[in-house]
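input
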Amino acid sequence: MYDISNYKIKQTPVILGLESSCDETACAIIRGRTLLSNCIISSAAEQAKYGGVVPEIASRAHTEAVDEVVGRALKEAGMTVKDIDAVAVTYGAGLLGALLVGLSFAKGLAYALNVPLIAVNHIRGHLAAAYLDDPALKPPFITLLASGGHTAILHTQSYTQFNVLAKTLDDAAGEAFDKCARVLGLPYPGGPNIQRAAKDGQANISFPSALVKHSQSPAFSYSGLKTAVINYCHNAAQKGMLVPAADVAASFQKAAVDPLVENTVKFALERGVGTVTAGGGVIANAYLRQRLTEECQRAGLKLVLPQVKFCTDNAAMIAAEGLNKYLSGDFAPMSINAAAQIPLQ
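output
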């Protein structure tokens, strides 16, 4: 019978993390802040045939891959399931069917081992990716969050608490990257292909900044920027002109990224916080990484920037956030369900 009422929290636990919110089936194992394995089986190539993620295909792929990816992670870590002290899993946000595959597997594993089940918010996993780059990292710090579902600047005050300093009023940065890639005729996934196209272009087209200048407090909007790119391309096509895809990509990228970087550094300086971190799929963008590195160096701030492989969906970040929840005793009941949407806070 599953009963963890007398479970004793360990200071350096072995945590198995599972991630299945979209098209990556992933498993990672950590001991404390040390990453022991990080395995991913992706269905992205299959999804690319349809120009984006098809939920039913993703769910089927997770079902086929989850047992294999867990086996790989255990082998890579040199462990068996008996070494696991807790199971952390993404329960939201994401594709509901996909989430249910990982959550159901995690429940079964935690039940069989009689160890705590830890339910992780996918976005908080992205925030915890910084601990993978710097295991000694301690709050407080300023965090730039930029993903397909959220865009915000946060004041991370402890391992479990943060305040939102600024956020998008409409679309997220990652969503805008994907939609602009689509209008330029670039293949899925959009974000990396915008980056590739921008390398051959010049940021010489005047697109509106993602910063909302008339807001009482700093805020971002990607709806107007996205619309401006779409209108530019449509107007050029109507005039029989060749759309300069590389220049459009470079100009969009600059308008989308610069306000995020500049305001992240600004908040750190205003609040006297000496460390900046970042998380989310958009943080894999090379231009953003370069600009954030340059501006933090110029301002004398320490930057903890996760490796690109920890910015996109992975289970290592889920395990890292799982450790934060584990040490605070925040365990989930077996009755917990998957959630397609979860608020940032």
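quick obs: Strands lie at 14-19, 24-31, 34-42, 86-92, 117-121, 141-146, 151-156, 162-167, 275-279, 302-304.
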